[in-house]
Batch of 2 targets.
Target 1
Amino acid sequence: MALFSGIVRVGDDGAALVEFEVPDFNGTLRLMATAWSASGLGHAVSDVIVRDPVVMSVSLPKFLAPGDTSRMLVEIDNVDGPAGTYELVFEQTPEIVIGKADTEHTVELAQKERRAIRIPIEGREVGDAEITLVLNGPLGGPSEAVAAKSLALGVRDNQPDETERRIVNLPPAGSIHLTGSTVAGFRAGASRVSFSVTGAARIDVPGLLASLDRFPYGCSEQTTSRALPLLYLNQVALASGLDTDAAIRARVTKAISGVLANQSSGGGFGLWNSYGDNDLWLDAYVSDFLIRARGFDYDVPALAYDQALDNLANRIAYASDFSDGGEGIAYALYVLARAARVSIGDLRYFHDTKLEDFSTPMARAQLGAALALYGEQERARAAFGSAAEQLRTGMSETADGYRSDYGSMLRDGAALVTLAAETKPAGVALDELVSLMGEAATNDRGYSTQEMAWMLLAANALTDSTADAKLALDGNVLSAPATRLYNGASLIAAPVRLTNQGETPVDVVTSVTGPPIRPGGPRGNGFTVMRDIYDLEGNPVDLAAIAQNTRVVVVLKVLALDDEAGRLLLVDRLPAGLEIDNPRLLRSGDVGALDWLALETETAHTEFRDDRFVAAFNRARGDARNASFAYLARAVTPGAYVHPPASVEDMYRPYRSAHTETGRVEVIGPNR
């Protein structure tokens, strides 16, 4: 705690009165004062004990999952209060069940006596429980509160989300009902239900915005992908109930600060830090975001902005020749064209001599968009035509392979629609591009952050295409944007009905995303992942019953089932009763007696959070197929808890993933 009064003028009597608002605190504060005048200087220090006559402290788990049982430890220390009967009162909340039904406990305290009360708690509904405890003074006379605590306890379902997506062709006078049955099989309070009408594009706008909003990891690509659509879809986000206008601007501003923190002195951007990867495509993607943000009057520091564009220009000037690839070059040319900082001669050269060497539809379309910005309509049309043909060919393949530009055919299709709609090159059939993207978007799989971001940009570019749809929500005319997002629990209490009041059919995309109530067993596509628990000597440990304060080593092993390259993310979700113990040991490699561990996999990024361990790592073709990771954990809070699965996924092909089974953990305390 640190409190500062500012400068206080001393009265004529040589005294000054200073007041501080001290938060909930019991302990010793050090008061320091410095005084000066024209002729002298002095200072004084004094310790001040701050405490209630009866001190109450409360210990809770850091979080709970629905169905977890634990205890709230309330310690009462009668430091200066009278002896007698004290009454502890608290209120039930929807998220958790606390103690006995009467929600009251009494305790006899002698003077100077200290007592501990263990009150059972159980996670019930997903949400943030606000717990208020009041300790009333001795009974038999006027009872008054002698201590109070306000605490927060989050109830979280950390099971990996699953998504069910449907496209319904709604005829005239037809209706769709979204009710409690819509979220059957999902944890209602943690689920999101959306509908969206976006014409042939068939894009679930509010669902994608919500998924990006909840994406918990923060590399430069993901930070940019979360914020970029918000520049354009502010009104959709507001209509979907995601946030207020001020909060959305704050999130974009935070994203700008986040990516600039990963900018190197040369102007480029690292994926996880500022001493990054020399990745021209990533440099161009972040720079594209900064240019667009500037256009919406966001504060992008001039020095950082100029360094980012200078970096792209320098990289183009010294770019090596290529016969296959060029994705970063194409994106850099497009960004520089938006900033009017590229030579028309360079654009013509790459179009006339290298167009067919660009290996992705997005790269060819970005070259076409750059040419369109400079008025080169014929070359722009040819570049977009080449991109569309390449997209058709690529979509006929069974699956996307690894791509260094974080992309897929779906991402490229969305980018073609966005770029064509923004630059409007002559002779490019936008409807055809929309149909190609719509076909790719119907695949029943999860979307990467790249795919979601560019699909949302495409949806924004096609806003006018759904203007003629006549829809009603619960009998009231639904104005644009024709999208909504609901919490699953709200549909149980208040179902909604969407009706087509027009004369032509409309396509409605509905989706449900959330954790399943009954998680399935272990499964995988492209990988297997295993989680084993050991003591510090390397002996297996069964978490079905583990003593409080026991330290364990969690070992995670990933096996690639093929030789595919990828940017992989491993996540191990902790049960509520365990906490990661001293992550600095494994960060520094100082594992002391844990020499039985064989950890040779190099990580690009690690995180040690309250509820999970995260490791990002890259896999190239020819690399060893086994990867191993470990961290230390400690059994902290007695109780019985859900142990969510560990999972691994290719961040840009999320259908390539695997997870372990869900388990149970019981932490046994001295009083069970």
Target 2
Amino acid sequence: MKKFFTYISFLLLAVSGFLSAQTVEQRLIPVDDVYVYKDNTIRGMEPFLKTYHSTAGSQYRRISFLKFDISSLSPFVQSVKLRLYTDGFSAGGDNAHQFDLYPVALNTWAEDDVTFLNHLEKMGPYINTPLLSSYAVPAGQAFEPQYIEFSGENLMKYLADSLAEGKQFISIRMREKYVVKKGGSAVIVDFHSKEHTSGFAPELVVEEKDVENLRASEISIDGVPLATFSETQYKYVYWLPWDATEIPTVSGVAKYEDTTISVEQAASLDGTEKQRTARINIQKGADVLTYKVVFELLPPPTDARLNSISVDGKDLEFFDKDECSYKAYLPYNVSSPPVVEVQTFDPEASASVDQAVELSDNESDRTAVIQVTSANGQEHKTYQVIFEKLPELDIVLAIGQSNMAGRAPYADLSDPMDSVFLLTPAGEVEISSNPMNKYSNIRKDLSVQGLSPAYKCALTLRDYLKKPVCFVVNAQGGSSITSWYQPGKSNYDATIKRAKEAQKFGKIKAIIWHQGSADNSAGLTDNFASYKINLAKMVQNFRTDLDDADILFVTGELSRRPDFEEFNAQVVHTVATYIPNSDYVSTEGTELLSDGVHLDAPSNLILGERYADKVIQHAYGGTSGTNTEEEKNFFLIRKEGEVINIQNKDCFPAQFNIADFSGRVLQNGNLQAGQSVKIPVNKGVYVLSFNVNQTNQIKKIIIH
């Protein structure tokens, strides 16, 4: 029979019969933690998780949630415990404190997007069975500050089942079972969140079995070693011809001589996965480690699709075997078309490639055409890769926490952004569209990404420069300056990698930064001295590692909430005194979503334009031309609810045009001297253009 290639599927370990062995320990810090209470306030950046039970209504309870990334764990889990640090409580409570843990249905939530009012939507309905674990403190007893530990069979099973199902995350809900009061006042228990500066973060402590002495050194199919074998890869998929009937023979070699090896051959090629799986069992005493080889049949010979396209040896990003046309953008300094290579989905099918001949204005010259013919010669399919060489791009790095990532809705602003390019995960570029933080390698779940200031900043720069621009958007909701300020810190390392990838397309002209709410509380303790030192270090490190000491840095005010006044005054307004070539933008006139934390859509547009104005001013010595203040206004604007009343104050006739921020014209026309017009509008940001006697004025109008 014919021998075919193997394909490594996602990692799945199979283990049975472990009794005793050495273990290794992993300590996992939550990627998200939050408590919910009463209203639409987001509490994910607070230093505490809180618990309290109330019978007066669910809105008065404090319930905490934690999410852990378990992708680094193997299923060889021997024990698990959740450790939470509490500041304790005094004696005299009228009831026992019992803290209960439960599973959470959904793992797509993010700490900077959860409130009491939406937490069931974000996390799914409560799961009240099984109870994963409990910790109880008797009624009336004082409790000193310390870690408390949760463990037990149900918590262990929850983790093991999640690993077996291939999940990347697990989430846990913690609630108190009883109402506890002291002298009529609620006893609310505080636990340190991952944002707390104490260093006593929540942790999931997992002990795993060390299986080094049970590993294989080789697996063969019909006597031919698997070229893709790895001793730490435990599952393989082996593809066979579509009409194969003979089951291959699997064999293996143990890494160590003091183990025994046995093989359970597959029973079928067309049955269930269990029937199509061969198992190589390596045993020492009662301990057994199993490797699996699953046989799959290739599609019949009528398939004329490709399995992959590569460009100069690099897989084409976002390839889909059912999508036939692709555009690949090339850096400005590339002189000749890349070489395209392909692999057919059916190895028996054939394919030919007519390479692009030159990077000219003629699209056919810069297009690679792939013709695919099925194995039986009856089906044909044509693919094409169109190359486009870009000019040298001016690039902006947009980073920070959730208000740079964006949380506002963008349904009305979802069209592709012509001549605005966005760096992709593979270090290439594509035409940008919202949400612009979708390719961040440190972002929260894609579902929470929304409209950000980067959108309007990019469009304004493009229109001013009258040429394409590129953005690298790499923000992370809830992130602290401590993860950003120097090499070795997670967000800095992740971001500098992407920024360097972008440099092949042009020059980084500016960094726009919106961050600080995660550090606001801690910063008050030293008048933000530490924060400013770290921010200055971050900017200097980016400039050094990107080999450009002149990169402009523009930061933004936090929202005009009273608790952010000191941060804005001490950190933002003074930025030019401690970071050379820097400036800031104001959030005056902006508004927040109902969560009280994130900028709404009109405010993101305003702030994005302000960032662009600063970049244009400092990097290009100009102005965007959309300033809100004029020396003399020829018009009078009155906002009457959701109606704009515009009056021509001049003695000459005037022409007017009013459009929304996406450019859609709502109304235009002529106004005689003193004449008015009323225009119905919805909540949003509008641009009024008013021309009197060949003098043009532009005004932004915000309807809240």
